[in-house]
Amino acid sequence: MIIDTTEVQDINSFSRLQSLKEVYGIVWMLVPILSLVLGITLGVLVIVWLEREISAGIQQRIGPEYAGPMGILQALADGTKLVFKENLLPSRGDTRLFSIGPSIAVISILLSYSVIPFSYRLVLSDLNIGVFLWIGVSSIAPIGLLMSGYGSNNKYSFLGGLRAAAQSISYEIPLTLCVLSISLLSNSSSTVDIVEAQTKYGLWGWNLWRQPIGFLVFLISSLAECERLPFDLPEAEEELVAGYQTEYSGIKFGLFYVASYLNLLVSSLFVTVLYLGGWNISIPYIFVPGLFEITKVGSVFGTTIGIFITLAKTYLFLFISITTRWTLPRLRMDQLLNLGWKFLLPISLGNLLLTTSSQLLSL
């Protein structure tokens, strides 16, 4: 049988072209993910620097000033130091649970960023159950903390893990009920649809004005979920010797702080998306219709403006969270659980009942 060399060359060229297309498709699929991870990393570094500077200003002292201009590289220097520190393992502890715990805490929170819209249609995955995916995935993080405390073979660490799990369960339920109220009000559980439902009247269309009680409950619950003062009992240094992370060192110790700031950032972004109108400019459509439509332009300029507006609202909430840390004293464990079960849960249930009744009456 005679084989034509031209046909063989065509077959080889086609196979190479298909391989290049497959590689290009994989690379193009990874670009949004890597861009999001890079943006999240920069956001966490900025939050750490802002917390140091704002805390220094509130306490009237000098903050970080030597690592880079105005101390902006201090968080990077701390992370580099933790990477090169020795990684110690507790004797007689469960090394597998001890090593997996911090990773579960970080990865579960990172997955929540996939449903956050940063600008008009600029979202990694626009799911119909976006907000409930965040609730479900973020609920896995306390399991990692409980595993860390149990694997440390330390009763104080285990007690800190139990407190973290109890606190998360107590405040996850009111937070979920507030999210359910927003979904009923917007007739959707997609984060993009929730933002677009608030666009009609600009500032006055925000869910903040239609759900003020839910906003306050969500604010308190999100602070408790992030273990921020006055709800930082799982790692209270005075009571538990740093709680579930007592036996950790090196980069595993740093992962807990990364998870804490990642959770704070994602909570602030969801406050922006659910209650503050997301990427929309807060000017009523009836006054300046052209300016209102600027974030819906499919250009780089419109996308950039949307990202800037989203981040501005997010960092406003972050400023409130940081100042709260140095304003309110820490609660006792019984006060924390009473607040969650006896006050926030009935209030969030009543808010959901009112929202459901108003939606039924409007049909």
TrEMBL record:
Say yes or no: keyword Nucleotide-binding present: no
**Job description of the protein:** NDH shuttles electrons from NAD(P)H:plastoquinone, via FMN and iron-sulfur (Fe-S) centers, to quinones in the photosynthetic chain and possibly in a chloroplast respiratory chain. The immediate electron acceptor for the enzyme in this species is believed to be plastoquinone. Couples the redox reaction to proton translocation, and thus conserves the redox energy in a proton gradient.
What EC number(s) has UniProt assigned to this enzyme? Answer: 7.1.1.-
Catalytic activities? a plastoquinone + NADH + (n+1) H(+)(in) = a plastoquinol + NAD(+) + n H(+)(out); a plastoquinone + NADPH + (n+1) H(+)(in) = a plastoquinol + NADP(+) + n H(+)(out)
Molecular function terms, GO-annotated: NADH dehydrogenase activity; oxidoreductase activity, acting on NAD(P)H, quinone or similar compound as acceptor; quinone binding
Which InterPro entries would you find in this protein's record? NADH_UbQ_OxRdtase_su1/FPO, NADH_UbQ_OxRdtase_su1_CS
This protein's name: NAD(P)H-quinone oxidoreductase subunit 1, chloroplastic
Query: Would you kindly state one Gene Ontology biological process term found in this protein's UniProt entry?
Result: aerobic respiration
List keywords of the entry alphabetically.
Chloroplast, Membrane, NAD, NADP, Plastid, Plastoquinone, Quinone, Thylakoid, Translocase, Transmembrane, Transmembrane helix
Q: Transmembrane residues, as ranges?
A: 26-50, 97-116, 128-147, 255-277, 297-322, 343-361
Q: How does it assemble?
A: NDH is composed of at least 16 different subunits, 5 of which are encoded in the nucleus.
One GO cellular component this record assigns the protein to is: plasma membrane
Organism equals Oenothera lindheimeri (Whirling butterflies)
State the encoding gene: ndhA
